[in-house]
Design brief:
The protein has 3 helices and 8 strands. It has helices at about 10-20, 60-65, 100-105, and strands at about 25-30, 35-45, 50-55, 70-75, 80-90, 120-130, 140-145, 145-150. It comes from Actinoplanes digitatis.
Length: about 150
């Protein structure tokens, strides 16, 4: 039998804890128009934004720049967080300022040492959903149109 469902307030707190965890990993899904592309990346949570780092010419970076959005997944199958986000900006790692500092502080590597071929992708969450079991599917949407519902 499943545990009692968490309140939306508790789910939001759990999501924020997961986003700000040291070395937070996420699956990032983008599309090039012909089909999906899925890759695991380490992320940072900074200023209510998701920050990814990857090679400038990687499919994830190219797809985000071309299409403007991605779906991210965190957690396991019994503690799911799904995030739909839009690309707010792309920053060369050498000119990232506070974004680069925040990423390096949360991550286990510093992309600023990887050279000019890397960029930071700053994503603005638009929708966040979180659930553990079927009893948490009702009310799973915690953010809609970029605004927290709790």
């Amino acid at each position: 039998m499943a545990d009692e469902p968490r309140t939306r307030t508790q789910r939001k707190a759990d999501v924020l804890e997961l986003l700000s965890a040291k070395v937070a990993d996420t699956w990032v899904a983008t599309s090039d128009g012909d089909g999906p592309y899925l890759v695991p990346l380490t992320m940072a949570w900074f200023d209510d934004r998701i920050v990814l780092a990857t090679a400038r010419d990687a499919p994830t970076a190219r797809n985000l720049v071309a299409r403007g959005g991605a779906r991210l997944a965190l957690g396991g199958t019994r503690d799911v967080v799904m995030i739909d986000a839009s690309l707010e900006r792309t920053l060369p790692v050498a000119d990232a300022g506070a974004v680069g500092e925040a990423y390096a502080a949360q991550s286990d590597w510093d992309p600023r040492t990887a050279g000019d071929g890397y960029v930071f992708l700053v994503l603005l969450p638009a929708r966040v959903q979180a659930w553990r079991e079927v009893n948490e599917i009702p009310g799973r949407t915690l953010m809609r149109d970029g605004a927290w519902l709790v």
